[in-house]
Amino acid sequence: MENNGAIKQIRYAMEKQYLSRYAAKSSETRGRQREEEPCPMRTEYQRDRDRIIYSKAFVRLKNKTQVFFSPEGDHYVTRLTHTLDVSQISRSLARALALNEDLAEAIALGHDLGHTPFGHSGERILDKLCSAGFRHNEQSLRVVDVLEKQGRGLNLTEEVRDGILRHNKRGEEGASTLEGRCVSIADRIAYINHDLNDAIRAGVLKESDVPEDIVAVLGKTSRQRIDTAVTSVWRNSAGKPMVGMEKDVQEASDALRAFMFERVYRTDFALGEERKAERMIGAMYDYFMHDLSQLPPVYAAITEQSGAEQAVCDYISSMTDRYAVYVFKKIFVPRSWTFFDENN
């Protein structure tokens, strides 16, 4: 036990010696909502990372849509591969800026745990259906605080919880740690680039469709664009209490994002698919709201604590794409009959 404790102390010492003065040191965490016996080997942020990886919500990400609903090909990005992409870029940014890689990784791995089936379409649909609204970042925090471990939650550190909640915020509303702000930037870098690759793979775009002024700044390939963004953050932020790209790179990245909204995210085809998802999710939402007894027991219990709408949103948002289709069919599609000849 003493040797194990020494491993963690060495880690603490290394952080104080090598990390930036603006980094979140593991030994200085603001702690957890409930006190726990510390691990003799792992830092608190390392424990958070492990808890997220072994959570049920994390496993479900593999069958949740990123952009294209239930894609048939093996190489389209899912919510899980997006999360791993964000984790990798977050660690690269944290390493370049001498920040805490373990904290950045834990936030990145947990940032989308509350995402709905059918990507951001599912989020917009639930936001319209629920009177209190629905935002995936808030649901991600609810997953780690309440829904995992049969209502006990994962009891993560305040720094990881803050980063998960604010990962989609910028400026003053952004995360309180620079590691959390690395995740916010990494999230945008990741989804713009892999969504572009998926759109090209699906035949929605051609590589030559990307405006030349954007290519001139960011690069032609995904690898070049990610390298440009990460290097720009390093040049602009190293040794400073901030995380951000240089102006020209940020403007080009924003222009690429606007291009993706125009040509991929909000096209007639995408909106047509979203209407299908809206009919499906809307029908399930009404069904469960009118008969809460049909909810699985773990979600039925939530109605007593947080109300019916919250319980239904918790259940539907937890679904993978294919499980949502399965539940919809089970509820609304009649089962086939086996006919037989009464004369035989």
How would you characterize this protein structure?
It is a single chain. The chain is an all-alpha fold and 344 residues long. It has a single domain, classed as Hypothetical protein af1432. Helix content is 62%, strand content 0%. The chain contains 16 helices and no strands. 43% of the residues are buried. The mean pLDDT is 92.
Which structural traits does this protein have?
344 residues; flat; Hypothetical protein af1432; mainly alpha
Structural class: mainly alpha
Morphology call: flat
Assess the beta-strand content as a share of residues.
under 5%
E-strand count: 0
Written as H for each helix and E for each strand, in order along the chain, the element string is HHHHHHHHHHHHHHHH
Broad CATH class: Mainly Alpha
Q: What distance separates the N and C termini?
A: 77 Å
The residue ranges in which pLDDT falls below 50 over 5 or more consecutive positions are: none
Which whole number gives the mean pLDDT? Answer: 92
CATH fold descriptor:
Hypothetical protein af1432
Radius of gyration: 22 Å
When the domains are counted, the total is 1
- Biggest beta sheet attributes: none
Classify the helix fraction into a percent range: 55-70%
Return the CATH architecture. Answer: Orthogonal Bundle
CATH superfamily: Hypothetical protein af1432
How would you summarize what this structure contains?
The chain is mainly α.
Write the layout of secondary structure elements.
Layout: H1 2-18, H2 44-53, H3 56-60, H4 79-96, H5 101-110, H6 119-129, H7 136-147, H8 158-165, H9 178-201, H10 212-218, H11 222-237, H12 247-265, H13 268-290, H14 297-306, H15 308-318, H16 321-332
